[in-house]
Every structure is written in structure tokens, then in C-alpha cells.
Amino acid sequence: MERTFIMIKPDGVQRHLVGEIVRRFEAKGFTLVGLKMMKVSRELAEKHYEVHKDKSFFPGLVDFITSAPVIAMVWEGESVIAAARNIIGATNPISAAPGSIRGDFGVSIGRNLIHGSDAIETARQEVSLWFDDEELVDWEPIRKSWLYE
Ligand code: IDP
Ligand code: MG
């Protein structure tokens, strides 16, 4: 079963949207297999966003991600990586679809509430960057046969 790394960014925590965001992934049908609250070190933030290190917004992005706690999560399900990107919405909340998290709760690209892995390989890398194996829980949700044919 596919897994993806999802992080509620400091603005999502500060705006008390943790429950609302978790609810959307649960209600859709995905399974939570890892969750922790943490203050992110500069080292981890820089590694996570390494692909953007030459962009003008990179220093501000690292400052932002390290400014207050985040909620790091791993969610599991069929095609969860792509589905989570849809639940999250476009990078800029102004153009994110209504009904998506960024579309419903954000107004600024630098405060877009949530991160989600964008592909199978990045999901694998990000899950192992943020979580040790023993922090992830294998379990069988009893609703599974009501979610999947
Ligand atoms: P994504 O989060 O939708 O995958 P990316 O293009 O990978 O978007 O950018 C990573 C993060 O960098 C964004 O979620 C956002 O927080 C930040 N970011 C991207 N572009 C800008 C920008 O133009 N200004 C400020 N922050 C930006
Ligand atoms: Mg990205």
C-alpha cells in the first residue's frame, strides 16, 4: 500500500487547523500510520527543501518552517500520494480549488498550511527523512473492505 509524507506547517498549527486537516484525510479513507509534533531544526528544514535551495524564497521558507511546531504525518492508502496533493490543493492558495485545504484556508503562497510529497520517490525519501521505522505503525483498519472493492 502506498504511503506519503504530510506535514502541517507552523501556520496550520498556529491557526488551530490540526483537527480539521487530519479529519479530511481520515474522512477521505486514508489511514494514519505515523504522527508526531516537533520543532524542526534548520538542518532538517534545509534538507527537506533542498530541491529549492537556489530559489529566492528558500531562506524565508526555512525561517518559516522552523518558527513554530509542525505536525509530521505518514498516511497510507491506494494512490494516496496523488490524492493527498488534490486534498491539499495548488501551491498558491489563491489559485487552489475551493474544497482543497489551501483553497479553503489560505491566502498566501508563503503561508500555505501543509506539505505533501509529490511523487513515489520523494514520498519514500521524505518518509525516511522524517520518521524512523519504529515510529511507523502497521495496522489493519476494519473499514478497509468498505473502502476498497
Ligand atoms: P508544494 O508545497 O505545492 O509542493 P513547491 O513548489 O514544492 O510547492 O514549494 C515548496 C514550498 O515553498 C511551498 O509549499 C511554499 O511554502 C514555498 N514557496 C513556493 N514558492 C514560493 C514563493 O514564490 N514564495 C514564497 N514561498 C514559496
Ligand atoms: Mg513540492
Structural topology:
Blueprint: E1 3-8, H1 10-14, H2 18-28, E2 31-38, H3 42-48, H4 58-65, E3 70-76, H5 80-88, H6 101-105, E4 114-116, H7 120-130, H8 144-147
Bound molecules: inosine-5'-diphosphate (IDP) and magnesium ion.
Inosine-5'-diphosphate is lined by residues 52, 57, 61, 91, 109-110, 112, 115, 118.
Structure description:
With 149 residues, this protein is an alpha+beta fold. Helix content is 40%, strand content 16%. The chain has 8 helices and 4 strands, in the order βααβααβααβαα. The chain has helices at 10-14, 18-28, 42-48, 58-65, 80-88, 101-105, 120-130, 144-147; strands at 3-8, 31-38, 70-76, 114-116. A 4-stranded antiparallel beta sheet has the order 2-3-1-4. The longest helix is centred in the N-terminal third of the chain and has 11 residues, at 18-28. The two termini are 15 Å apart. The protein binds inosine-5'-diphosphate (IDP) and magnesium ion (MG). Inosine-5'-diphosphate (IDP) binds next to loops.
Beta-strand percent range: 15-25%
Mean of pLDDT: 98
SSE string, helices as H and strands as E:
EHHEHHEHHEHH
| Main pleated-sheet profile | 4 strands, antiparallel
Small-molecule binders: inosine-5'-diphosphate, magnesium ion
**Which stretches of 5+ consecutive residues score pLDDT under 50?**
none
Classify the secondary structure makeup into a structural class. Answer: alpha+beta
Helix content estimate: 40-55%
Which strand order spans the largest sheet, edge to edge or round the barrel? 2-3-1-4
Terminal-residue CA separation? 15 Å
Count of extended strands: 4
Shape descriptor: globular
Question: What Rg, in angstroms, do the CA atoms define?
Answer: 15 Å
